Amino acid sequence: MLLRIVFTLIVSTTTAFHAKDSYRMLPQTNFGVGEHLEYRVRYGIFSAAEAVVDVAPQIQYVNGRPCYKINILGTTLGAFSWFAKVRDEWQSWTDTSAIVSQKFYRNIQENNYRKVETTLFNHGSDDALVTDEEGTKKYDVPNHVQDAISGYFYLRTLDFSKLALNEAVEVPTFFENKVYKLKAKYRGRDVVRTKYGKINALRITPIMPNNQLFKGENSIRIWISDDANKVPIKVEVDLWVGSMVMEVSNYRGARNSFRWN
């Protein structure tokens, strides 16, 4: 559950799409092959988990389209593994020019729970084929729909200077066999302290519905580097029981230099 929260945060910070058309061209210089990011997750004073985000060094092809293969691996650490042992792997084949998902894979191992699932998107007919241990099912999806990872990378291509303070944005995302219209608000600019120094950042708060996990509508705060990379630097989460912080702990292969102060 803890790692699922972390990855749900990534989904919750994307924006709206245009009306249906052919594959869009979305030039970007924010990320590329070979990027490697590591995050450490703390629950209160305890190191709870770590997550690694890798972009494969070679372009791969799905549905005849060139894609970035993006892999996220999340594991619990130390004492947390005694009662919440997690090893989750998520993969997205994200179209290099349209920045939409062509394929999504997840291998979930949380205590005794197991789930292996592959989703293949067909953007020509706006449907998704989901295959798991029970077989294959087809679902209707919106045009330019994203998965839990590709939406995060799409976010990095946005020009935040065109968003007004507190402006809400949304994106249709297919996750766990459902389409969600997830919303977030742009809250302006901050300076965040990290192990590498201070960095200028953009702050976003996903709009959370009433639930038994997160404490209020503004319970999640996400800081994205205000530079050419636009990577999540820090996430704070207020839970009904305790709080959680995720921070970047290591990186290499960034397409652009980070602007540490």
- Class inferred from helices and paired strands: mainly beta
Largest sheet: 15 strands, antiparallel
Tally the structural domains.
Answer: 1
Mean of residue pLDDT?
A: 85
Number of β-strand runs: 15
The tally of helices reads: 3
Q: Low-confidence segments, ≥5 residues, pLDDT <50?
A: 5-21
State the helicity in percent bands.
under 10%
Instruction: Give the termini distance in whole angstroms.
Output: 35 Å
* Shape field: globular
Helices and strands, in order, run as HEEEEHEEEEEHEEEEEE
The proportion of residues in beta strands is: over 45%
**What radius of gyration results from the CA coordinates?**
18 Å
Please provide a written account of the structure.
- This protein is mainly beta and 261 residues long.
- It has one domain.
- 8% of the residues lie in helices and 51% in strands.
Summary of the model, kept short:
With 261 residues, the protein is mainly beta.
Task: Give the topology.
Elements: H1 2-11, E1 36-43, E2 46-55, E3 60-62, E4 65-76, H2 80-83, E5 87-95, E6 101-110, E7 113-122, E8 127-132, E9 135-140, H3 150-155, E10 168-175, E11 178-194, E12 197-206, E13 220-225, E14 232-238, E15 243-252
Antiparallel strand pairs: 1-2, 1-15, 2-4, 3-4, 4-5, 5-6, 6-7, 7-8, 8-9, 10-11, 11-12, 12-13, 13-14, 14-15
Can you tag this structure with a few keywords?
single chain, mainly beta, 8% helix
